[in-house]
Amino acid sequence: MRIVVQLPDDIETLSAPGRAAQEALAIQGYRTGAPTQFQAAQVLGLTRLEFEAFLKERNIVESACDVEDLEQDVEALRKLRAKGLSAARSA
Known about the structure:
Blueprint: H1 17-32, H2 37-43, H3 48-57, H4 67-82, H5 87-90
């Protein structure tokens, strides 16, 4: 798909304004969860691993994990410990 964006003339003095717009789209999409991480990576022509490195370079370390996901993980860990198992051994 091709999207055309009209930018003010003074923006052309910036280095690669089109790429900056693509990066902003991918980052915002990643933050909102609208596209998958894979799809956000595709916007930039990156693999998922390259996209993760791209985010890390920009200190974007947000997680798609919410409080409910974390609570479920904690409960699963409690059950494993009650059985005498650790997460490391069961992996």
